[in-house]
Specification:
The chain is α+β, with helices and mostly antiparallel strands. The chain folds into 3 domains: 43-273, Thrombin, subunit H (Beta Barrel), CATH 2.40.10; 282-368, Pdz3 Domain; 384-473, PDZ domain (Pdz3 Domain), CATH 2.30.42.10. It has 11 helices and 26 strands. The radius of gyration is 27 Å and the shape is globular. The chain starts with a helix and ends with a strand.
């Protein structure tokens, strides 16, 4: 009996050890093998799930057309470390460390012009582009944080430029391929369908964010940002930009900037150095039951004007707060994303026809779109570099000043190494006054700090729109 119990005991212990060992190898060795496999630099990696056999050949030709135009992008920058007490008083401490981030881009011109996401190249001190095993140094031609797009240039000729398609012509349910170059893998292709258009997911951080994404279930993972979304013909219809995920990995929803928006951004940057954004002079909101009740309407088509800028384009065209915009130049508008996208195709000085409802009566008005300063001229962003403050400064536009209720305002556009950094003032903060004196220009702000002594109070507005101040003793 004792011998039997002893045998059973050893058997149970042995079985337990075996199970634990199996679990260990399954969870560690197998997962490690999978990790290594995912890091192997395959020439092409393709994911096609549940694809009807009749269009498999189309995927092959679309992939062959799109993948040669997608590049790998490396962003190299120096990240400043936080200053300590000694750094504040003696100018030392802090230091910096090299930071590298990566993404993808798309060749749009055979002479070396590449489009990517702004967040892929943001704050870069050096940008490297890898195409067909060759590495090029790239320069930023221009960027537009509001659409999260940027244009790069490399010195190369006869590059395989992608064929540009029409994102307006795409339809929900259409098959697409997402092409990227993550981790310097030589083109990764995934397949899916367009599951929605005109999506606003609140991820763009520009001052005038433009979000009207193409939503797709083609897998888009970190590293694919800036890559191409192509149709079954291999034509560019979007720039892959974001994923909707709680883990940082793809979970079924990917989003791309429509190609028609992207190409307008590219054209403006190449012609004028920056995007010539048109302003409607009002803000709109999606209609829902609650807003419909406030406006005394059961018809929830269109978008409602919820903010009207004084003496701006919309007011001059006779529109009022509470009007419901239903179409622009006969293009039906049913969401704020669709409204923003349609306006994005125009420039300051363009005239548009606005169809709207007011108390269930139909109206039309001709509206002259303006720039951020309320005129019809083409503008160029002007940034002033202050060596005294160690920051780039810019004057806040009239559109923003009117909305925030400001007479004047100077924004901290970029923080470098220097006084602003040591004071802890964040990028995006708008300085309105120093020691109760209103500041009108970046040059004036820089000059004020040249001779400051004693207690200093800086008043302003934070990037999220709340009032705040900084107090220091020099």
């Amino acid at each position: 009996m004792k011998h039997t119990l002893k045998t059973l005991s050893f058997g149970l212990i042995g079985g337990l050890i075996g199970a634990l060992a199996f679990g260990y190898f399954q969870n560690n060795v197998f997962s490690e093998a999978s990790y290594i496999q995912n890091q192997t630099p395959f020439q092409n990696t393709t994911r096609v799930a549940n694809v009807p056999s009749g269009i498999a050949t189309d995927f092959v030709s679309a992939s062959a057309a799109g993948t040669p135009s997608v590049v790998f992008i490396k962003n190299i920058s120096q990240q400043n470390m936080n200053y300590d007490m000694f750094g504040w008083f003696f100018g030392g401490g802090g230091g910096s460390q090299t930071q590298v981030s990566t993404g993808s881009g798309v060749i749009i011109n055979k002479n070396g012009y590449i489009i990517t996401n702004n967040h892929v190249i943001e704050n870069a001190e050096q940008i490297e582009v890898v195409h067909e095993k060759r590495t090029y140094l790239a320069k930023v031609v221009g960027s537009d944080p509001s659409s999260d797009l940027a244009v790069l240039k490399i010195e190369a000729d006869n590059l395989p430029a992608i064929k540009i398609g029409s994102s307006k012509a795409t339809q929900v349910g259409e098959w697409v391929l997402a092409v990227g170059n993550p981790f310097n893998l030589n083109s990764t292709v995934t397949a899916g369908i367009i599951s929605a258009k005109g999506r606003d997911i609140n991820v763009v951080s520009g001052r005038f964010p433009l979000e009207s994404f193409i939503q797709t279930d083609a897998a888009i993972n970190p590293g694919n940002s800036g890559g191409a979304l192509v149709n079954i013909k291999g034509e560019l219809i979007g720039i892959n930009t974001a994923i909707l995920s709680h883990t940082g990995s793809y979970s079924g929803y990917g989003f791309a900037v429509p190609a028609d928006i992207a190409m307008k951004v590219v054209k403006d940057i190449l012609e004028y150095g920056e995007v010539q954004k048109a302003f409607f002079g009002a803000e709109v909101s999606d209609l829902n039951t609650q807003l419909g009740d406030k406006l005394h309407t059961n018809n929830l088509t269109g978008v409602a004007i919820t903010y009207l800028q004084k003496e701006a384009a919309a007011e001059k065209a006779g529109l009022q707060k509470g009007d419901i915009v239903t179409a622009i130049d006969d293009i039906i508008i049913n969401s704020k994303a669709e409204f923003d996208e349609q306006i994005s195709y125009y420039r300051p000085g363009n005239k548009i026809k606005v169809s709207y409802r007011r108390e269930d009566k139909i109206g039309e008005s001709n509206l002259l779109l303006t720039n951020r300063e309320g005129t019809t001229e083409l503008l160029k962003r002007e940034v002033y570099t202050s060596n005294v403050l160690g920051a780039e400064l810019e004057t806040v536009s009239k559109v923003e000043r009117d909305k925030l209720g400001l007479e004047t305002g100077i924004r901290i556009a970029k923080v470098k190494s220097g006084l602003v950094q040591r004071m802890g003032i964040q990028e995006g903060f708008i300085i309105t006054a120093v020691n109760s004196k209103k500041i009108k220009t970046p040059e004036e702000l820089s000059k004020v700090f040249e001779n400051l002594k004693g207690r200093v109070v800086i008043e302003g507005i934070s990037a999220n729109g709340t009032k705040g101040y900084y107090s220091f003793i020099f």
